[in-house]
């Protein structure tokens, strides 16, 4: 495993407010937005020399025929993060008599969205964050969603607002997300937060939850990002695009693979770090991976399984059985990146309330 970047080793002035905001993050972890380092180009290598190959991030093989990859345990890391958040909420309540508040807006009856929202509310309860919910029918008017957002914007006990996505087809997602108050945008989907994530030297108030969860996992497992080749499969606004931006802020060389990419396998096979977020079951096979790559599987795909009590089970975009033989570390589905999404939402909500109350 590579050594963690040490906070002390980096120029202190480069650490900005947001990066140091989360007290419960392990102190030795690098900041979530990466170090704002200047691009100073070294002189080109002489034609005779070539860059050394990237070192293995994790041990390449273990004894016998066992799978070689470390399985990245997002579930237990997210539990650790959540218990740190619960402690911080307690400290806040004891010190200033206030707790963070999260408002969730759910439109329609999608089973997966209902389940995610239920889990978010339950997670809030467990850490002491107050939650409010607006549930609207599938066929409601866009104006009803806008007025729910506006009333949460005006409520001082609400520090985070999220509109569960996807919205019904007839709704203008852009118009609705634009109305979420910038300083309550705990999903980080407001164009100004997203724009600041994309721009050098700028800091968004919030980083989208799943991409932030991906980077947290890499940092907590000591995976070096700087200078590595990363491939992000998918370019959605929720996961693919912001994950590419974050990896770039951590100084990876990032390629995006999408539905129009001619040779996805060959491009992915170059990567030290692969993040897949397209929602196509088992599309990333073992031969898409460079030996020793670190693989984060964000896909959550239901597949029929008569042996399961619900008649289906969830699998990722990555063929786990093959990838585990090739990669050096990999997230499982379920239990990998998914649980980090909710932990990061709680973290963003806590940070927002601290900012609102001037509590540190
Ligand atoms: N407003 C938002 N909408 C959506 C987001 C988001 O971040 N903000 N992300 C996804 C769904 N999502 C949260 O909303 C989410 C997805 C998955 C999980 C999770 O914990 N997955 C588990 C499996 C859960 C299960 O058994 O059903 C896992 O992978 O282990 C949490 C949240 C789209 N919409």
Question: How would you describe this structure to a colleague?
Answer:
Strand 9 and strand 10 (312-315) form a beta hairpin. The chain is globular. Helix 1 (74-96) runs parallel beside helix 10, helix 2 (111-127) crosses helix 10 (338-357) and helix 6 crosses helix 10. Helix content is 34%, strand content 13%. The model is unreliable at 1-18 and 48-55 (pLDDT under 50). The two termini are 33 Å apart. Strands 1-11-8-7-5-6 form a six-stranded parallel β-sheet, sandwiched between helices. Strands 3-2-4 form a three-stranded parallel β-sheet, with helices on both faces. With 360 residues, the protein is α/β, with parallel strands linked by helices. The protein is built from ten helices and eleven strands. It has helices at residues 74-96, 111-127, 142-154, 173-179, 191-198, 209-220, 240-249, 264-268, 320-326, 338-357; strands at 70-71, 101-107, 130-136, 160-163, 229-233, 253-257, 273-276, 294-297, 301-304, 312-315, 329-330. Bound molecules: the ligand Nc1nc2c(c(=O)[nH]1)N[C@@H](CN(C=O)c1ccc(C(=O)N[C@@H](CCC(=O)O)C(=O)O)cc1)CN2. The site of the ligand Nc1nc2c(c(=O)[nH]1)N[C@@H](CN(C=O)c1ccc(C(=O)N[C@@H](CCC(=O)O)C(=O)O)cc1)CN2 has 19 residues, from helix 2, strand 4, helix 6 and helix 10.
Provide key terms for this protein.
alpha/beta, 360 residues, three-stranded parallel sheet, disordered N terminus, binds the ligand Nc1nc2c(c(=O)[nH]1)N[C@@H](CN(C=O)c1ccc(C(=O)N[C@@H](CCC(=O)O)C(=O)O)cc1)CN2, six-stranded parallel sheet
């Amino acid at each position: 495993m590579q050594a963690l970047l040490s906070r002390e080793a980096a120029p202190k002035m480069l650490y900005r407010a947001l990066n140091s905001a989360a007290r419960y993050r392990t102190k030795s972890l690098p900041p979530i937005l990466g170090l704002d380092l200047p691009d100073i180009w070294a002189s080109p290598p002489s034609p005779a020399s070539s860059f050394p190959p990237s070192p293995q991030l994790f041990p390449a093989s273990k004894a016998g025929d066992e799978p070689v990859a470390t399985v990245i345990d997002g579930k237990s890391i997210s539990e650790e993060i959540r218990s740190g958040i619960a402690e911080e909420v307690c400290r806040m309540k004891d010190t200033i008599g206030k707790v963070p508040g999260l408002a969730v807006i759910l439109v329609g009856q999608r089973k997966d969205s209902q389940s995610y929202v239920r889990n978010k509310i339950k997670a809030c309860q467990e850490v002491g964050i107050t939650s409010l919910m607006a549930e609207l029918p599938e066929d409601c008017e866009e104006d009803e969603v806008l007025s729910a957002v506006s009333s949460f914007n005006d409520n001082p006990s609400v520090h985070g607002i999220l509109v569960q996505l996807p919205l019904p087809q007839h709704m203008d997602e852009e118009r609705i997300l634009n109305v979420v108050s910038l300083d309550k945008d705990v999903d980080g989907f407001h164009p100004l937060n997203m724009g600041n994530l994309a721009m050098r030297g700028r800091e968004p108030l919030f980083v989208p939850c799943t991409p932030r969860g991906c980077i947290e996992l890499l940092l907590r497992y000591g995976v070096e990002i700087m200078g590595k080749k990363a491939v992000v499969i998918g370019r959605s606004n929720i996961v693919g695009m912001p994950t590419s931006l974050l990896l770039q802020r951590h100084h990876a060389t990032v390629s995006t693979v999408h539905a129009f990419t001619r040779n996805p396998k060959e491009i992915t096979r170059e990567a030290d770090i692969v993040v897949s977020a397209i929602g196509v079951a088992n599309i990333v096979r073992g031969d898409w991976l460079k030996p020793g790559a670190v693989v984060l599987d964000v896909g959550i795909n239901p597949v029929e399984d008569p042996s399961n009590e619900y008649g289906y089970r969830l699998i990722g975009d990555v063929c786990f059985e093959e990838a585990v033989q090739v990669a050096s570390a990999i997230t499982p589905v379920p239990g990998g990146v998914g649980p980090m999404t909710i932990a990061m939402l709680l973290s963003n909500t806590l940070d927002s309330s601290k900012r609102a109350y001037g509590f540190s």
